[in-house]
Amino acid sequence: MTTTLPVGATALTFDSAGTRCEAWHFAATSDDVAGPAGRPVAVLAHGFGGTKDSGLASFATALAGAGIDALAIDFRGFGGSAGEPRQRMRMGEQIADYRAAISAAAGLPGVDPERIVLWGVSMSGGHVLALAAEFGAAGANGAGAAQGTSGAPGARRAPGVGGAQGTSGAPGARRAAGAGGAQGLVPDGARRADAAVPRIGGVEPRVAAVVSMTPLVDGRAAVRHALRHGGPLASLRGAAGGVRAGIARLRGEPGLIPLVGAPGSGAALSLDGYERSYRALSGPTWQNGIDPAVLLTLPNYRPARPAADITVPVLVQIADFDRAAPPHAAAKAAFAARAEVRHYPCDHFDVWPGGEFHAATVEHQLHFLRRHLS
Question: What is the CA radius of gyration of the chain?
């Protein structure tokens, strides 16, 4: 199914390990943060089971208005992107798609490949922290460690790398060169030697800043959080649905469970009000189905473990009453990354278009990026 392009967007595709992925490019409409080498560019991706036509346009349009090109992507198997089986989430594949999107964004006309912004929300909010640590610990192509980085408060960052504002992680602790990074974050996510981001016009793409909104950064904490809010009965129903889906796959059927549903429905997200909130955002390419295998791998998803290796400015936006992505885990990750933190007295979906805190969320993102990209 196709969808109408948002105002100001053009459609394009990029290749990720042989899979055609689809994106929308929102070209900057001002030169507010343009530099001699061009404009910064942000790469945006959706969270759990989402698609680029499900709420990302509002954020991308705001970025473009502030002088930052925006590339909103669909992960493989979702929305307008190719990839089989459909609706399957594998964290390593999605992080690989992000890397490919960074390359595509860095090659856009008028863009400065050394000023790339990683923008993620919910599960992709975890992905961008993993990628930022990977780039910080080993450079875009895995060659060497970032120099001059310290966890000590007020420590000066390496020239051109930038520094996150806020409190330090382990005070004064310096990571060994190349240690940490994104390797081993998820079962299928180890970085391969062929996963390098290619140079653009002889310039190595560099991450300049990170925006992580209501991020899911600890799968184990998320499982415990879900049990606390949904109760064990709902979790058992979800598990039973996963078993039925597995049997269906053995029969050659899609084997999906609903992504969102009413409480007690056995959907992956069945907290009260979540189905209404998700459907209010959903675009024409979104499908209410997910491969339940992701629920088995979720406890091993720990994208923020190397957060102390991040060497660029980070904004973490936390919904204090978030029932989907544990806010305490996000706060812990933000502390380790020495991030700027914004808190909102709301639930997971209240920062999206139509939500009470959407305008404030966007305003804080733009304020953060103007300061660090100008």
Answer: 19
Would you give the DSSP letter of residue 163?
-
Q: Are 74 and 51 in contact (CB under 8 A)?
A: yes
> In terms of C-beta density within 10 A (0-12 exposed, 13-18 middle, 19 or more buried), how is residue 338 classed?
buried
As a residue count, the chain comes to: 374
Q: Coil, strand or helix: which one is 264?
A: coil
Question: Residue 85: is the preceding peptide bond cis (ω within 30°)?
Answer: yes
Instruction: Round to whole Å and give the CA distance between 31 and 363.
Output: 18
Q: What token pair was written down for 304?
A: 């923020």
| Rounded CA separation 154/292 (Å) | 44
The predicted-structure confidence for 176-217, as pLDDT tens digits, reads as follows 333 333 333 333 333 433 456 766 666 789 999 999 999 999
Residue 278 has, within 13 A of its CA and on its CB side, a CA count of 26
The three-class DSSP label of residue 333 is helix
Distance (Å, whole) CA 368 – CA 316: 10
354: left (phi over 0), alpha (psi -120 to 50) or beta: left
Query: What was the pLDDT predicted at 227?
Result: 76
SS3 content of the chain, % helix, strand, coil (to 5): 35, 15, 50
User: How many CB atoms sit inside 10 A of residue 192's CB?
Assistant: 10
